[in-house]
Design brief:
Keywords: Oxidoreductase. The protein is of the alpha/beta class. The protein has 7 helices and 7 strands, in the order E-H-E-H-E-H-E-H-E-H-E-H-H-E. The chain has a 7-stranded parallel beta sheet, with helices on both faces. Helix 2 links the parallel strand 2 and strand 3. The two termini are 32 Å apart.
Amino acid sequence: MSNVKGKVVVITGASSGIGEATARLLAEHGAHVVIGARRVDRLEALASSIRSEGGSVEYHALDVTQLEEMQTIVELVLSRYGRLDVIVNNAGVMPLSPLEARKVDEWNRMIDVNIRGVLHGIAVGLPVMKEQGSGQFINIASIGAYAVTPTASVYCATKYAVRAISEGLRQEVGADIRVTLVSPGVTESELAESISDDEARELMKDYRRISIPATAIAQSILYAINQPAEVDVNEIVVRPTASMA
């Protein structure tokens, strides 16, 4: 993986699931990974594990809804490595519920993390990448960015937004910066644990019986980063083979 080795990669939402699997895989292939999430104890344990395997990793507390915290982690990257090659905007939440349940606080949380968090990553990373003349944004969406399902209206809306933002960014940045949208189908993660609505929780239990491992998504991210600089993999959809949706 010659195009991955030595690259400096920021990964948000790295304390579990896709973010954790991606950090492990990229470090294994020689990337310098900088991991951020709110659960610092999880980050510390992950960093220790990566270092024990010979990987390069730094970690910092990160709430992606706070622009200044995203700025802080990028400043850490620049002070440590002098460049920023990739931002994986992975942090996300999925508290599903029917609209009639009127869980407005949960709607707002999804908007803040799933949309605003991605925008904050772009806002902080783009000037750095433009100045250095290269870089890549990898935004994690969902198959919910392509079709809406009951109880997932707001969640899908946030992922449609990530898809739209990613395409707009791709068209705006020109030839030097790559933009990749990765849309996982049902994947093993802690996302479903945030569902407070009983009906949505039961539906998700059945839906998740065919989950694929988070490592499958990490492999897709690795693939996108590893392409030659002139190759921009724009969209990757990864579903369980048994999935009908």
